[in-house]
Amino acid sequence: MRPIEYVIDTDDRIVAAAGGWSEFAAENDAPELSPARVLGTPLLDWFAGDDLRQLWRELLAVCRRTNTARTFPYRCDAPDFRRALRMTLTPRPDGSLHFRSVLDHQQQRPRLELLRRDIPRREQFVLLCSWCKCMKMPSGAWADLEIAVTREGLLNGADMPQLSHGICPSCRDLLLGGPLQPASGGPWTGTASVPRRDLAC
Ligand SMILES: [Zn+2]
Hints:
Layout: E1 4-8, E2 14-19, H1 21-27, H2 35-38, H3 50-66, E3 70-75, E4 81-91, E5 97-108, E6 121-129, E7 135-136, E8 142-143, H4 145-151, E9 160-166, H5 169-177
Parallel strand pairs: 6-9
Antiparallel strand pairs: 1-2, 1-5, 3-4, 4-5, 7-8
């Protein structure tokens, strides 16, 4: 997969989408994310929920204020694949921000019906962390997605709940409570996400 790249201007509108963006949208059966559809739209409109939008506002503000590129790992799964990506967010002198995501690791797995876009859903929601893909369990604890769907009996395509995206406490702490990893390399200490409101991940 080619790197996925996009740029937001000082008003946080997407003004460029290049690299592997088109392929990624196509592979994830998300034609609504084609460059022609997203250009000119506010980046934050692509995130569901006030929590995520506020988190992104803070991240963008920190990046601009410190004028320092940051790199974050994140998960963006497809039904048949676990995917680990790494995003580098780079401020530019004109106040725009450049995003570049590369695929670090992809592993095929038995299909997770929960992530399919083409199945009927019941009224109930389950909450996934947008960064690490953990799922919030009824107990309130967060569990790795594959473990959670097994525990909750969400392994077949019948009677799937709807997906809601937020952020788990661990990822929130990493993003806002501690130092983020400069883009120069080394072990990651933070996580981040790309627009994925309508992606199957
Ligand atoms: Zn998380």
